[in-house]
Amino acid sequence: MLVTKLIEKKRDCGEMTAEELEFLIRSLVEGKVEDSQMSAFMMAVCCRGMTERETADLTMAMMHSGDTVDLSDLPGVKVDKHSTGGVGDTTTLVAAPLVAACGGTVAKMSGRGLAHSGGTLDKLESVPGVCVEQPLDTFKDIVRRIGIAVIGQSTDLDPADKKMYQLRDVTGTVKSIPLIASSIMSKKLAAGADAIVLDVKTGNGAFMNTLEESAALARSMVSIGNSLGRRTVAIITDMNRPLGMAIGNGLEMKEAIEVLRGEVPMDDPLVSVCLTLGGRMLMLAGLAEGPEDAKRKLEEALVSGAGYRKLCDMLEALGGDISYVENPEKLVAVKRKVSVCAPNDGYIASFDAKSLGVSSCLLGAGRFRKEDKVDPAVGILMKKRCGESVRKGEPVAELYVNDESRLEEAVSLIESAVNYSEEKPGELPLVYTIIE
């Protein structure tokens, strides 16, 4: 086969075979495909699209481009959860320990944050001592003993995706549903889970801004997972606002601890979404008969503190200093706190969630480039939610600051990210739909 002929075939709307896609991906990993050629192929996919069968075959080829993880020696149904990325999105740190407390087996490999979207590994590492780079045997031993472990991906897992993602980031080919779906699902499938719950974000703080785009991506990923023998469900959730009140690694870990201690009301948006995601995880694992049964069990694990103990056990097994969990204020010790206040009386009409996420990065809580260093203590603590009333001069956000070099820029961006109105706005749904 000739790579140029495959590029031309997709350019001309041809449907590629599984053999052609496997050849292309294998050649990429072996270094036999030029960056310019792979970029041209991915641009052709962006413009011409792929069928469901093509997307599944591309995912399979990427999945088998490197190591795959065998979790068959672990007990029960191994269930994983993945978020497409958002702001103040601390769901893994809450939902996964609750599921483990209900008897679930959660063996999860996660990623780091980039740009406005936070990463679970960075949040875990806000607890001093935590090491997310663990050998596979240690990872499986932690899961076997505790029921949950969240670590970083092996460098040999899905090398094709690493090469493709780097090229997509600089060639304008990120926003393609077949490429996004195959990127996410190839990693999830290579990581060995039996069942996958996908939290697909939609809104101004998500990578997919419209409900139509998010639903199309969700359907594609569910189709891939189920066609390759993994029970897969997608839940489309709102990201037109931060999900939690905290934006930043230590702040989000602190918020997750507070939720698991029962210090946050059950009707809080973060808690509500975590119960929905965790409920589907329990159902896929065969541990709940339906949504109401799952919700009841998760709430019992929350109220009893069983979920909190699972988080503590996992962090300790990863080398974490548990004194920071017992006293989470230590996670967010900073030199200075700065308030951003309302300019007038009124209501919080809406947020630009992406701008809030970027503001936290300006403070040092995230990365604009993969090599950027992260300060685990800094970030933003929101003081108001959408729809709440506010008085002139009342704080709407509090910035946790160590490095003040971009503080003025961060404050200005937050001020522009909060929109006010004289009338109380209508409520947005937290969960739009569930695709099975």
Features:
436 residues, alpha/beta, Transferase, Pyrimidine Nucleoside Phosphorylase, Chain A, domain 3, Pyrimidine Nucleoside Phosphorylase, Chain A, domain 2, Aldehyde Oxidoreductase, domain 3, 3 domains, four-stranded mixed sheet, four-stranded antiparallel sheet, globular
Write the layout of secondary structure elements.
Blueprint lengths: L2 H9 L6 H12 L5 H14 L3 H12 L15 E5 L7 H11 L4 E5 L9 H5 L11 H11 L1 E5 L6 H13 L5 H14 L4 E8 L8 H17 L3 E8 L7 E2 L1 H12 L8 H16 L6 H13 L2 H12 L5 H4 L9 E6 L4 E6 L1 H10 L16 E4 L6 E2 L4 E7 L5 H11 E4 L9 E5 L1
Parallel strand pairs: 1-4, 2-3, 4-5
Antiparallel strand pairs: 5-13, 6-9, 7-11, 8-10, 8-12, 9-11
Helix pairs in contact: 1-3, 2-4, 3-8, 4-9, 4-10, 5-11, 5-12, 5-14, 9-10, 12-13, 16-17
Give an overview in words.
Strands 1-4-5-13 form a 4-stranded mixed sheet, sandwiched between helices. Strands 6-9-11-7 form a 4-stranded antiparallel sheet, sandwiched between helices. It has a 3-stranded antiparallel sheet with strand order 10-8-12. The chain has 17 helices and 13 strands. The chain folds into 3 domains: 3-63, Transferase, Pyrimidine Nucleoside Phosphorylase, Chain A, domain 3 (Up-down Bundle), CATH 1.20.970; 79-326, Pyrimidine Nucleoside Phosphorylase, Chain A, domain 2; 334-421, Aldehyde Oxidoreductase, domain 3. It is α/β, with parallel strands linked by helices and 436 residues long.
